[in-house]
Amino acid sequence: MNILGVESSCDETGVALVRAGPKQQIPELRAHALHSQIDMHQAYGGVVPELASRDHIRRVLPLTRQVLADAGAQLSDIDVVAFTQGPGLAGALLVGAGVACSLGAALGKPVVGVHHLEGHLLSPFLSKDPPQFPFVALLVSGGHTQLMRVDDVASYELLGETIDDAAGEAFDKSAKLMGLGYPGGPALARLAEFGDAKAFDLPRPLLHSGNLDFSFAGLKTAVRTQLMKLANVCEQDKANLAASTQEAIVELLVRKSLAALKETGLKRLVVAGGVGANARLREMLNAECAKRQVRVHYPELSLCTDNGAMIALAAAMRLQRGIAKTSTDHTFNVLPR
Ligand code: KG4
Ligand code: ZN
């Protein structure tokens, strides 16, 4: 079965073709293509929803053609069309949903709406070192920070989550305060390489809360306070503050992940979502998990941020288990929140 996946929830247009066999086999990625709108939004310091929607419209069909060509496939080879149903920007989601459902109607094939976060969560199954169920998942994106116990596809237990900002937001907002532009996470991480993570003593909210929830809003405030204290912020100050901020966020994510592993007794951790690309997070997690004989799995770096492959994959894994919510009448809705 060939599943075409379309992702358009935010500022990346992603299309992919995945082949799914029986449930015992992990679906195979045949081809994927991605267009990032980062350059377009950079001038505005963040994503402009209307511009995002218009650019998805421009990109989605050329990307679909490219994916089919790269896979050596025809439109008629597609058995199911999957699209990101939410969460995300309403207008942006509607582009992917509209195209997927039109394609499904034209080809006479069913369509499947996919939860964007399930896509992120399952994306490590496309890596060279795929996980096995059950595992603890640390889901860290621009909008979400969650710890979950995952027993199988669609069998998720929320263990803890952020009570305010997401980890990605903490990176992005701190970066913005430091004037690092958009997207802030990668920019802050790059600058942090030149800084001293011990230079600033930043708070670790909820570190000792005794539960698995996160809080990052206070961190952003602390970054603002530090910046105000420094009369003239030199480049080294900025690098030190970037490194200190990254260290605080990463330490919170690592400590709570370890607590979740301890609480569940599981020996496997899956990290997914854009912040999962952070090198310091991977370094600290790898070191701490190695000490505890815990195996850590990540998506391939190219599949850490939004992409169509994870959407096709999530649909494929649900189809393999007979639990995909397929629609054959090609009406659709999106779920932005
Ligand atoms: O998963 P994602 O691509 O989109 C959402 O679904 O939100 O995650 C985007 C988030 C942004 O906040 C971005 O700054 C952050 O992931 N991010 C990073 C890195 N790469 C992306 N944060 C820290 N370090 C990185 N290397
Ligand atoms: Zn995402």
UniProtKB/TrEMBL annotation:
<dbReference type="GO" id="GO:0005737">
    <property type="term" value="C:cytoplasm"/>
</dbReference>
<feature type="binding site">
    <location>
        <position position="185"/>
    </location>
    <ligand>
        <name>substrate</name>
    </ligand>
</feature>
<keyword id="KW-0819">tRNA processing</keyword>
<feature type="binding site">
    <location>
        <position position="278"/>
    </location>
    <ligand>
        <name>substrate</name>
    </ligand>
</feature>
<keyword id="KW-0479">Metal-binding</keyword>
<dbReference type="GO" id="GO:0061711">
    <property type="term" value="F:tRNA N(6)-L-threonylcarbamoyladenine synthase activity"/>
</dbReference>
<feature type="binding site">
    <location>
        <position position="172"/>
    </location>
    <ligand>
        <name>substrate</name>
    </ligand>
</feature>
<dbReference type="InterPro" id="IPR022450">
    <property type="entry name" value="TsaD"/>
</dbReference>
<dbReference type="GO" id="GO:0002949">
    <property type="term" value="P:tRNA threonylcarbamoyladenosine modification"/>
</dbReference>
<dbReference type="InterPro" id="IPR017860">
    <property type="entry name" value="Peptidase_M22_CS"/>
</dbReference>
<feature type="binding site">
    <location>
        <position position="120"/>
    </location>
    <ligand>
        <name>Fe cation</name>
    </ligand>
</feature>
<keyword id="KW-0808">Transferase</keyword>
<dbReference type="Pfam" id="PF00814">
    <property type="entry name" value="TsaD"/>
</dbReference>
<feature type="domain" description="Gcp-like">
    <location>
        <begin position="29"/>
        <end position="312"/>
    </location>
</feature>
<keyword id="KW-0408">Iron</keyword>
<feature type="binding site">
    <location>
        <position position="306"/>
    </location>
    <ligand>
        <name>Fe cation</name>
    </ligand>
</feature>
<feature type="binding site">
    <location>
        <position position="116"/>
    </location>
    <ligand>
        <name>Fe cation</name>
    </ligand>
</feature>
<dbReference type="InterPro" id="IPR043129">
    <property type="entry name" value="ATPase_NBD"/>
</dbReference>
<comment type="similarity">
    <text>Belongs to the KAE1 / TsaD family.</text>
</comment>
<protein>
    <recommendedName>
        <fullName>tRNA N6-adenosine threonylcarbamoyltransferase</fullName>
        <ecNumber>2.3.1.234</ecNumber>
    </recommendedName>
</protein>
<feature type="binding site">
    <location>
        <begin position="139"/>
        <end position="143"/>
    </location>
    <ligand>
        <name>substrate</name>
    </ligand>
</feature>
<keyword id="KW-0012">Acyltransferase</keyword>
<keyword id="KW-0963">Cytoplasm</keyword>
<comment type="function">
    <text>Required for the formation of a threonylcarbamoyl group on adenosine at position 37 (t(6)A37) in tRNAs that read codons beginning with adenine. Is involved in the transfer of the threonylcarbamoyl moiety of threonylcarbamoyl-AMP (TC-AMP) to the N6 group of A37, together with TsaE and TsaB. TsaD likely plays a direct catalytic role in this reaction.</text>
</comment>
<dbReference type="InterPro" id="IPR000905">
    <property type="entry name" value="Gcp-like_dom"/>
</dbReference>
<dbReference type="InterPro" id="IPR017861">
    <property type="entry name" value="KAE1/TsaD"/>
</dbReference>
<dbReference type="GO" id="GO:0005506">
    <property type="term" value="F:iron ion binding"/>
</dbReference>
